[in-house]
Amino acid sequence: MATVELKSISELFGLQFFIPSYQRGYRWTTVQVRELLEDLYDFSDDNKREDDDYYCLQPVIVKGRGEQWELVDGQQRLTAIWLLSALYYCSNRDDEINLEHQKYELEYEGKPIFTELFSLISKYVQDDTMPALIKHLDAYKEKSIDSRNLIESIEYIAQFTRKNKRPKGVLAKIFEAINSIKIIWYVFIFHCPI
User: For residues 106-120, b (16+ Cβ closer than 10 Å) or e, as one string?
Assistant: First the structure.
């Protein structure tokens, strides 16, 4: 049995997601990150878009787990969106009044070093520039393939924004699209008849 609804990314802020050890690690490379960035940028740049149009991501499948949601499917996408939100905050925190680093929590079972990276990123985006953030995280590249992919994703996002004339404008457009994302929120409800 399941419930299905559309949710915006902002509705996920403040939630805690638990990624069980049976899930594969963070495997998105710069190819998938580039595709997401280009899709979001193109969506936000579409002059024909109506105010109530939204960009729909693939389903996110979750199970209730106390105070957390166990993420059954969708962790690659949610991790990439988490990164984009953090990097947008890092690039714009000094220019926008009352900008908050809004996020959801990601905890990877059996991967304490990888989970720690999210705490470090949250800490560094408060005060550092994007190049300084990348420098702080560089030592973590060798700790695991998940860490390497995550940090290379950050490096690619920084490179993607630099290729354009106005890096803050690029991330602002992408963040505008993030605010227009809807995910298919699929809550898996398991009842054991035994």
Answer: bbbeebeebbebbee
Beta bridge partners of 82: none
pLDDT for 54-76, tens place per residue? 889 889 999 999 999 999 999 99
Query: Tens digit of pLDDT for each residue in 105-163?
Result: 999 999 999 999 999 999 998 888 888 999 999 999 999 999 999 999 999 998 888 77
Q: Global pTM?
A: 0.89
16 within a domain of the structure (yes/no): yes
144 Cβ partners below 8 Å, 6+ apart?
25, 111, 113, 114
Going edge to edge, which strands form the sheet with 181-188? 2-8, 181-188, 55-65, 68-73, 16-19, 105-108
Domain range enclosing 86 = 2-188
79 Cβ partners below 8 Å, 6+ apart? 26, 28, 106, 150
Q: Tell me which H or E stretch contains 82.
A: helix 75-92
The domain total for the chain is: 1
